[in-house]
Amino acid sequence: MSIESPDRVGAGLHRIAPVAGVASAVLTMAGYLTIGEFPDSSTPASDLPGYYAAHGQQVTLGGTFLSWAAVCFAIFGAAVWARVHRSSAPPVLAGAVLLGAAAATMADLNSGAVYNLLGELGVDPHVTAPALQAWHISGSAFGVGGGALLFLLGVGVAGIAYRAVPRSLAWTGLVLGVGQFAPHPWGFYASLLFLLWMAVAGVALAVRPDPASARPAEVPQPVG
């Protein structure tokens, strides 16, 4: 019986980790589709108890999907950071990618938790309609995803200037990052396209080996 070396196992994990981007995109879409048509932030408080009485369970399940999507994104983000870190890109770009991934992960985890909570609060007879509305607004409102923006900008610059990732991913990521600032509904569409980018990037980075990992290790030369 043979045991694989830690280096070989680590290289395998480094190779397949980006595929978590595909899982994150799929789980995110599953979460949105499960929740379905969600009342916007201007919905009267008196209408919300009836909505949650009919859809509370699917909102909770959708929140669970979104929470798992956030975990998968954290793995994907770490894999992208490792690739940028191993490239010739300056440390500040690797730091931006890591910080952006961490911030986006926390925002996604919070979003999933809010939907989970809303599914439970919506059917709780002891929760007043105004209190439910306050939580509902936090789940229905849409703003600029600062974490995703920082992540995409870091990946874009690192890919374009230092070839840390394929330039096609870098340019499209940069465009989507800037698109986060577009007014509604274009910013929302940019966030949906980010899911597609993440899935494509996950496959591309898994299929295309990391140039840094393919370089032979330097062998110390004797002196004298």
Key traits:
single chain, 224 residues, mainly alpha, 9 helices, elongated
Number of strands: 0
Shape, principal axes of CA atoms = elongated
**What percent of residues are in strands?**
under 5%
**What is the rounded distance between the termini?**
43 Å
Largest sheet: none
Tell me, rounded to a whole number, the average pLDDT: 87
Poorly predicted regions are 213-220
- Order of SSEs: HHHHHHHHH
CA radius of gyration is 21 Å
Q: List the total number of helices.
A: 9
The share of residues in helices is over 70%
Structural class call reads mainly alpha
How many separate domains?
A: 1
Give a nutshell description of this structure.
Helix 2 runs antiparallel to helix 8. This protein has nine helices and no strands.
